[in-house]
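Researcher: Quick test of sequence recovery. Tokens follow.
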């Protein structure tokens, strides 16, 4: 008999077929694997971690006119079909509703370890070589400029400003990606983020050299 995790994997694969490449099944799979690795180093509810990681981008607001209510509704309906206990459903929905970088100013006080783990995993997949590839893929998807020397990064944007931002892809490194290393919650997450962060710094150095034809 298939487990709830197996059924969730099948559901997410089908739901995200044809999704933008930075937020497709392969992103979900990486976050799931990263979260599972981090969970091994923490006392947590493994099922909540895995279900949350698998469902966290089932309906990313970026692709649904900013609507943050769709993902929790889809997730609840699916988990109820799987006869997942209400207590577990509430924990999973809490992670989904609070994981986003743009919602960091509304972060809950003393968040549960399951949220910390999945949030770290999602943020780790946003940096390093994969993070660079995803960032340029999404910038191309939005037809944003790669870089413009006269356009400065916008630091400290509000949630609404961040959602509406259409700045350059390089600026996104300063507006988000380079900030993530110091936002990790777990020791395992911090160690994973360090190498990827340094890779991005080296990439930016090389990018500017080539841009300026040095």
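Model:
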């Amino acid at each position: 008999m298939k487990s709830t995790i197996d059924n969730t994997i099948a559901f997410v694969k089908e739901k995200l077929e044809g999704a933008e490449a930075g937020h497709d099944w392969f992103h979900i799979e990486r976050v799931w694997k990263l979260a599972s690795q981090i969970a091994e180093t923490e006392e947590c509810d493994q099922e909540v971690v895995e279900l949350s990681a698998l469902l966290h981008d089932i309906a990313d607001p970026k692709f649904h006119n900013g609507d943050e209510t769709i993902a929790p509704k889809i997730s609840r309906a699916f988990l109820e079909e799987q006869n997942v206990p209400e207590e577990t459903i509430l924990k999973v929905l809490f992670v989904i509703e609070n994981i986003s970088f743009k919602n960091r100013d509304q972060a809950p006080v003393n968040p549960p370890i399951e949220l910390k783990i999945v949030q770290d995993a999602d943020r780790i997949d946003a940096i390093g070589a994969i993070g660079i590839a995803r960032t340029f893929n999404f910038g191309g998807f939005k037809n944003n400029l790669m870089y413009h020397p006269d356009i400065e990064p916008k630091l400290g944007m509000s949630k609404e400003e961040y959602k509406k931002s259409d700045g350059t892809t390089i600026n996104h490194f300063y507006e988000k990606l380079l900030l993530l290393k110091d936002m990790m919650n777990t020791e395992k997450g911090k160690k994973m983020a360090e190498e990827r962060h340094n890779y991005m710094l080296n990439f930016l150095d090389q990018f500017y050299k080539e841009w300026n034809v040095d």
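The chain has a mean pLDDT of 91.
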